[in-house]
Design goal:
The chain is an alpha+beta fold. It folds into three domains: about 120 residues, C2 domain (Immunoglobulin-like); about 140 residues, Immunoglobulin-like; about 240 residues, Rossmann fold, CATH 3.40.50. It is about 20% helix and about 30% strand. The protein contains twelve helices and 32 strands. Strands 21, 22, 25, 26, 28, 29 and 32 form a seven-stranded mixed β-sheet that branches. Strands 2, 3, 4, 6, 7 and 8 form a six-stranded mixed β-sheet that branches. Helix 6 packs across helix 11 and helix 8 packs parallel to helix 9. It starts with a strand and ends in a 10-residue tail after the last helix. GO terms for molecular function: calcium-dependent phospholipid binding; metal ion binding. Belongs to the copine family. Pfam families: C2, Copine. Keywords: Calcium, Metal-binding, Repeat.
Amino acid sequence: GAPRAAHAWLHPPRNLLDMDTFSKSDPGGWLGWAGGTAWHGHGTAWQRSSAPLSAVVVLFVQGSGSSEWKEFGRTEVIDNTLNPDFVRKFVLDYYFEEKQNLRFDDPPGSHSTVLGAQDFLGQAFVALGEVIGSQRGRLERALTGVPGKRCGTILLLAEELSNCRDIVTMQLCANKLDKKDFFGKSDPFLVFYRSNEDGTFTICHKTEVVKNTLNPVWQPFTIPVRALCNGDYDRTVKIDVYDWDRDGSHDFIGEFATSYRELSRAQSQFTVYEVGWGSQGKVLRTPHTRANPALRPQVLNPRKKCKKKKYVNSGTVTLLSFSVESEFTFVDYIRGGTQLNFTVAIDFTASNGMPSQPTSLHYASPYQLSAYALALKAVGEVIQDYDSDKLFPAYGFGAKLPPDGKISHQFPLNNNVDNPSCAGIEGVLESYLQSLRTVQLYGPTNFAPVINQVAGVAAQVTDGSQYHVLLIITDGVISDMLQTKEAIVTASALPMSIIIVGVGPAEFEAMEELDGDEVRVSSRGRYAERDIVQFVPFRDYVDDSGNQVLSMARLAKDVLAEIPEQLLSYMKTRDIKPRRADP
């Protein structure tokens, strides 16, 4: 997914450990957030032991799969206080789909090579997702690391940087355009160009073709402001008018130039542009409001003569409507209180092999986790940062249960039918391993029961405050395809997404069909409202060197990348706006 830029600041720390005998500690502070491709970070709170007394907090970052820490930056120094508020912000890229750990600590050798002789004030560990997912993007964490001492707390604030997120909807028509077709009139369409810094132009939108008319009315269309002018409201926007020809050799009718600021004035009054060629057209606009649109437009810009050829008037284009609305982001909803609820469903069919045998996909050696456990940890450790209670319902399917050997496709891994939730990802792993010791792997591979179970929970709260993510981990060919398609079509109207991870060497053509990237899933004539399924085969993410951490990072990045857009698509179709965070 594209990075969502943001910054964070550290209002740190509070009630710092006082290391000075005759004055308060002079701490430096760390602040920052945003995200980046699997960035990890750590920083350190330091105080100099030599005069003048001062301190600094240093942020270090570590790339995904790397053991090397590099300094990212450090705060300003604030003198003689145990409760400093720091000004400096660190700007990073934020990726929902990646685990981005931040750590405040003492890097080896830093006393002499980086920071000099200084007193250590404490350390803290936090994931960037925890800061984003906390209420109002504000997280307080205790500082530790000095034996027998209370080191105080550190306060992290996260904020998404605005990047011209407005979206424009506009409608245009034309009047008395030139006739270009020998046996008819013209088939006009518009082409919009954004100007670049070097004076060139880049195409950013084409309207539909309106056939056989000199007075076309084009359909309203929507375009991001950043695509139209890159956020520069005064940058030139050029609009060409063409007559469509079947062979692609479209005839040029004329052009005119404007800007986003000029276009935006149409929110209160009509704007009429003269179309021409041989020179830039003149701009016409009525000085009156829409309440009196019949008044004759007034010429605002003088006609510019072309040195090489005489200016030719080819008609006019009128901007009929222009409206702007903000494009909400995933972070807007998370900061507004939307919770991600994570549910796990694990395949317990016999095709996985006996868990006690090394050939089994459920086999966990003393040295490494099974493919099921790896997939669960990879996805769960990212999702859990956005769930406040860290309680995750976990189910199994395709097993015979004791004592009577009844086959179940939706049994709680913790053996508690009334409350199938496990405490954290470690709790899910513990219940999963316990179930492997108590149930008999059997079959068939049915998805519909667990999808319907989560859909039933999701249907209870549809106001945007809850969004559900179901992770299904399986090894084989699905047995209830028709029922699963029906369940997915129903679930697509609810606040939920489905991730399917295929483990083992099997072919997964049926899973690709459920993914719906190419063709939307349908059942009995009904099509899914949204694409809510993401499928990946785990074997594509196994690192050749056997690095499980890198394998997990790669898997999480791909399977979670679509979740923010899927959440946004649900909110948009239901016209749900993010709740405004408390100031």
